[in-house]
Amino acid sequence: MADKQQEKAIFRLLKKEVATAMQHSYPAISPDISEWKGKEIVDFQEEMASRVSGQISEKWFYTHMKTDSGSLPRIDVLNLLSRFCGYTGWDDFCHRNSSLSRSDTPLRKANRVFLVIPLLVIAILAILFVVFKLYNTLEYRICFYDADTREPITNNIIEVSLLLPGESPVNFLCSADGCLVLKTDQTMVTLVVKTPYYQPDTVVRVLDRFKREEMVRLRPNNYALMIHYFSRMNVKDWQQRRNQLDRMLSDSALIYQVYNTGAVGMELFSKWEFINKLTMPASSLNQIEILDTKYMKDRIVVLRFRQKPDRP
Fold first, then answer.
1. Which of helix, strand or coil describes residue 251?
2. Which of 173, 260, 292, 309 fits a disulfide with 304 by CB distance 3.0 to 4.6 angstroms?
3. DSSP state of 154
4. CATH number of the domain at 137-218, out of 3.40.50.2300, 2.60.40.10, 1.10.3720.10, 3.40.50.10900?
5. Are 171 and 160 in contact (CB under 8 A)?
6. 13-64: per-residue pLDDT in tens?
7. What average pLDDT score do residues 168-175 get?
């Protein structure tokens, strides 16, 4: 005997066949038995009485035929409905339609499977992606050295911007030893490097997971280095120094002195004001630290600096 779920599926098939059987006598009647009402129900009652000498009430019809109730009709009514459709009884109908009814329930199960399997696949792929990211996220040490002297660039402000596709740059400051520790899962990185005494550069590196230390050379910013040295060196030929500064600085250069403390945070110099202060024998601009330079036609057009305090 079929289980309860299968019996309900078979009963749904029986209702469809009842509708088909009614269409032989009433071609205009709806093939969907749940849409019958009023005259259609009366016609069905008369057909039942005529064909199989069976009687059903309108209330019974609404309970069992128009909706899927929680239980099957009595077996005697199931036999009448089966005979109405041309079968010897309910058992005959079940036997001849069991294969069709079994395909109905598995279909629902199959639909659930088709929903669950993609979700499981997506979840598994997400987990694998996270594991892959974690496995491939490694630490790389990137150090910078002087292209001329081949010496490490230490005790300098080295700003590094990591460029990511579709995202804002991620900014880092190198440590005092001129190195940066970068954690990434990328196999290739693009870095924009800026430091006051070296030319800015865009560095592209293909990272090797088995060799996680990279050396990057930077070319000196010669003018910035010269100005820095001028502020520290005792030079007898002041006119020569002035001539050199004149060649390095644009006539319209904007030169800013930045203060770390005090009420005034910045002071602006013209080209010759700066040259005069830097080349006076008793110069007030000692121990200059260049912060930033901008060039146009090989001459400095913007210079930002600060003055380090004298050490005792």
1. strand
2. 292
3. -
4. 2.60.40.10
5. yes
6. 988 999 898 888 898 888 888 888 889 988 888 888 888 888 888 888 888 8
7. 92
CB 182 within 8 A of CB 172: yes
* Ordered strands of the 188-195 beta sheet: 170-173, 159-163, 188-195, 198-206
Burial annotation 18-47 (CB, 10 A radius, 16+ → b, else e): bbebbeeeeeebeeebeebeeebbeebbeb
Domain boundaries, the chain: 4-105, 137-218, 222-307
Please write down the long-range contacts of 61-69, taking CB distance under 8 Å and 24 or more positions apart.
61/36, 65/15, 65/18, 65/33, 65/34, 65/36, 66/33, 66/34, 66/36, 67/34, 68/8, 68/12
CB-based contacts of 187-192 (< 8 A; 24+ apart in sequence): 189/162, 189/163, 190/162, 190/163, 191/142, 191/160, 191/161, 191/162, 191/163, 191/216, 192/160, 192/161, 192/163
Tokens of 242: 């002035």
Q: Please provide the distance, in angstroms rounded to a whole number, between the alpha carbons at the two ends of the chain.
A: 105
Site of tokens 């995202």: 167
Unique residue bearing structure tokens 């660039």: 153
Query: Residue 283 has what pLDDT?
Result: 61
Please, are residues 18 and 73 in contact by the beta-carbon 8 Å criterion?
Answer: no
Q: In what order do the strands lie in the sheet with 288-296?
A: 266-269, 249-258, 299-307, 288-296
Specify which residues 189 forms β-bridges with: 205
Distance CA 274, CA 182 (A): 40
> Which pair of tokens denotes residue 201?
């550069």
pLDDT at site 208: 85
pLDDT: which is higher, 102 or 197:
197
3-state secondary structure of 304: strand
To the nearest 10 degrees (0 to 180), the angle between helices 90-136 and 4-25 is: 120
Mean pLDDT to the nearest integer, 267-283? 84
